[in-house]
Structures are given as C-alpha cells and as structure tokens.
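Let's do one together. I've listed all components of the complex below, 133 residues spread over two lines.
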Amino acid sequence: MADADSSADKVWPTGLTEEQSEEIHRHLIQGTQIFGFIAALAHLFAYIYSPWLK
Amino acid sequence: MIYGKLWLVVRPTVGIPLFLGAVAVGSFAVHVALLTNTTWVKKFLNGAAPAATAAIEDSAQRMAAAPPTLVLPAQTVKQ
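Okay, and this is what the predicted structure of the assembly comes out as:
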C-alpha cells in the first residue's frame, strides 16, 4: 500500500504537487546559474578594466 | 533535484520574492559599501581629471574653428 504522502497527485499546503514544486525549483536554479554567470563575467571585466584590487 | 520539494511547504509567492529580494539587497549593500568606504570607486567613475578634459575640449574647439586648408609645396604649382 502506497504511503499517502508520497502520492504524486497529493496537493500540499502551498497548493502545489511534487511535480510542480520540482519544476519551480528547476527554473529558480537555472535563473540563479545564469545570474551567477553574468555576475562572474561582470566581476572579471571590473577586475580587468578598473583599479579594483590593484 | 536537491530541495526540489521546498515549494510544497513554502508558498512560491512568498519564497521567490524573498529570495530575489535578499539577492538584490545583498548585492546593492556590497556596492554601496564599496562606494562609501573606498576612494578609488568615486575617482574611477568620475573619469579623467577636469584639467585634462578641459584641454581636450579646447583643442577640439580650435580644430572646429579653423577648417583644414590645403597648402601645396612651391614646386608643384605651375604657372
């Protein structure tokens, strides 16, 4: 007998299913990675073209 | 994905703005702290010294006032 909490169709207190929660999280992680990459690039340019750390 | 079930217990309408807001406030605070606690950021953003800028502008104005003229060497002029 399957545990009621592990059901894929169960709607949790936030109103989401496990699948929906995973999807939101996937997008959030991807956005964070893109933001991080752009920020790293910006810091590299700042290091090269400004007196920062010199 | 690790922590993928977070949004089952935290409402995305609360958690996502909180997360993005924390990132925005944190990064803004770091840059404001840099601007207020160092001297070089302000100097760098101000660009070149005013004296050097004035000299460049003066030179550009003189170039604009006197249009270029063509002066031929004497031997190339035939009469």
